[in-house]
Amino acid sequence: DRFQQVLDGAGNDEETLNYVWQNQRYLQPTSLAEFWEMRAAHGEAAIVAGGTDLALTVNKQHIHYPVLIGLEGLVELRRIETTPAGWRVGAMVTLTNLLDALGGDIPALGKLLRVFGSRQIRSRATLGGNICNASPIGDTPPLLLALGAEVVMGNADKQRVMPLNEFFLAYRQTALEENEILLAVQIPRREDLFVGAYKVSKRRELDISICSAGMAVHRDGQNRVDEIRLAYGGMAAIPQRASHTEAALLGQAWTEEAVEAALPCLNKDFAPIGDLRGSAAYRVLLAKNLLRGFYLESTASSAFDAIRPVGTVSLRSL
């Protein structure tokens, strides 16, 4: 067909694509400079990363996009750069490539990505797209929040860096300003942290979370918590850290008694909704059990199996 002929003619990502069919246009730049020019000329254009979510709005909701700008040709957004401080992951890095590159260095991330969607979806979906989609039940944000990740955003004139914890503003709303896009995600290298990631769903793969969590803790020489991040998905309108619970544990001895004493703080942190996947009370119970499980895993205890919620994917044990 005509579309295939144009793609065959383009040959590779190094050639700009400008495909027009009837009342729809698809543009694919090969550099950020070219992208900003296209964005200025087509301010109404929808931005396409991997397209795994946008495609659903087309074939399920029948939304028509007059102009689409694809980012797949932007090689600078598909790079993963390693530094002594950590990793800078381009927003267009696919989850498959992210798994191959960092799955060994960040075991919790590798185990999380292996149960993300399906192999086909992971080969299209991008890290930047999963973040910018700003779904309250996105799989990667809770773990990235626990790892202390930052996002790099920019427009044609400037770039800025922001903690991921400040990026999500409201349901499906982010801190991206007009004409900004997400350029990269910066993940600190912290081998001194104990990190856990969890997902509760009815199926192991190809399922939406009922509740998910990413957790990280560091203890000093006296077994006191001097750093902790507890992030949840499916508990609020955005992926969100449990700030009250973190505060209750910070400075305390890392013991089962301290964790149990902090659990009621989760009721202050979250007021989840109930839906077909689970009631609000069930989600709160899951959140508490996942924190209990994180503690038990951090102390190499096998007792987590006794409280594991049905359907939980404990990503440390895959």
Tell me the count of domains: 3
Report on the biggest sheet: 5 strands, antiparallel
How many DSSP E strands? 16
Number of helices: 13
What gross morphology would you assign?
Answer: elongated
- Briefly note the CATH topology name of the largest domain: Enolase-like, domain 1
Helicity level: 25-40%
Assigned CATH superfamily of the largest domain: CO dehydrogenase flavoprotein, C-terminal domain
State the strand order across the main sheet.
5-6-11-7-8
**Which structural class do the helices and strands define?**
alpha+beta
Radius of gyration, CA atoms, in whole angstroms = 21 Å
Determine the strand fraction and express it as a percent band: 15-25%
Under the CATH scheme, which architecture of the largest domain would be assigned?
Answer: 2-Layer Sandwich
Which tags fit this structure?
single chain, 318 residues, alpha+beta, Uridine Diphospho-n-acetylenolpyruvylglucosamine Reductase, domain 2, Uridine Diphospho-n-acetylenolpyruvylglucosamine Reductase, domain 3, Enolase-like, domain 1, 3 domains, five-stranded antiparallel sheet, 13 helices, 25% strand, elongated
